[in-house]
Write a structure and sequence with these properties.
The chain is an alpha+beta fold. It contains 7 helices and 11 strands. The protein has a 6-stranded antiparallel beta sheet with strand order 1-2-3-4-6-5. Strand 9, helix 5 and strand 10 form a beta-alpha-beta unit. Helix 2 packs antiparallel against helix 3 and helix 5 runs parallel beside helix 6. It starts with a helix and ends with a helix.
Length: 273
Amino acid sequence: MKLQQLFENIKGEFNALWKYKQRGDTLEIVCPYATTQNRFVSVFVTKQGNDFIISDGAWVSGGIYNEEGLGDESCFIKVLEHFRNAYNILETHASNGSIYYYLKTSNPIDIPSKVFDLSTFIQNILSVADIAFENKQEKESVKRFASKANNFLKSFIPSYKIKVNDYLNPDKKELKFNALYFASPSKITLINYITGSTNTHFSNSIFKANTLFEMAEASIMQPHIAEKLSVVDTDALGYSPEKIGHYLLHLERQTASKIINWVEREKLQSLLN
């Protein structure tokens, strides 16, 4: 077989992997690019006004490719920003919290290159998201406590008054808190969860809460901050009052945050009412 024929065979097989589905006014293009979990990447093309929008359909943040979606470890965030900048990817947030990654163009000739760039971006970040940047035990500990705390808050707070794992300023997307309680549309209580599978991780969780509260006070959202609460996981393996007590005291004094121990979580009901 001639090498040129070999090339033609490869091109033919590769081209055959492209698929599409019509979804109303949107065209789903299934690209021949797979993640490390062996999932082919889809991009969605639609027209808005004079522009063609090529997006991920919020599938990345929605956990369509993997159940956990993207990670929020600082290392991964840096990787995500690197790829976003490399491919000039835009981002927008829907009212339900979904994140859309997209590109747009007014020239149909540019659509193939935009499809290539976005699909490559999706393939890269999803594959990187499979890497465990954090200690597995620590990640599970944080996730478990966040789930318990979220469920407890939702048990007595109306859904329209609380957001979990969300940004203080959706337009900035810089300061993300474990929970935000809206006593009114303009009065917000910031809530951080403090936990850790070791003393070191627990201390780092306190430092992170301290930083987030201080940055919030220095932001344009400061006039809307009504209160700051730190919910401490007293059941965590890393919880050791004699070793982390002075850090919690510093957090309380430095940020005027109220410390609520998980064993006394009923206090949250009177504070968030």
